[in-house]
Amino acid sequence: MAITDTEIQMAFRIKRCVKEFFDTHNQTEIEAKELMPLFIKKDIFNLNYQDGLPIQDFLRHLEKEKYLNLIPQALYKKKNTNKNWFFIKTI
């Protein structure tokens, strides 16, 4: 399944949201699921279910389609059966 223009715009909105978060907080890393309330507030996602599943699914989709570079702050740590998604502060 290819990525749509809407998903590209959504990725850019997430990128801006994450940048705003790091510009206003002293953290340099945060789990993706921890930013779900911010993404909901900014109308990127409608609701949070299963502890951050919407953002995790979206990041997995971007990675699968080779578009994860749209959100340079997004990284993952490989676990035994899944990936732990997080965002890091970039320059």
Strand arrangement across the biggest beta sheet = 1-3-2
* Count of DSSP H/I helices: 3
What Rg, in angstroms, do the CA atoms define? Answer: 12 Å
**Uncertain stretches of 5 or more adjacent residues:** none
Average pLDDT works out at 95
Intertermini distance: 32 Å
Percent helix, as a range, is 40-55%
**Tally of individual domains:** 1
Percentage of β-strand residues: 15-25%
Secondary structural class? alpha+beta
Number of strands: 3
Shape: globular
Spell out the helices and strands N to C.
HEHHEE
User: Largest sheet at a glance?
Assistant: 3 strands, antiparallel
Tell me what you see in this structure.
This protein is α+β, with helices and mostly antiparallel strands. It has one domain (5-88). It is built from three helices and three strands. It has helices spanning 5-24, 36-41, 53-64, and strands at residues 29-31, 74-78, 83-88. The protein has a three-stranded antiparallel β-sheet with strand order 1-3-2, with no helix packed on it. The radius of gyration is 12 Å and the shape is globular.
Can you give me a brief rundown of this structure?
By secondary structure, this protein is α+β, with helices and mostly antiparallel strands. It has helices at 5-24, 36-41, 53-64, and strands at 29-31, 74-78, 83-88.
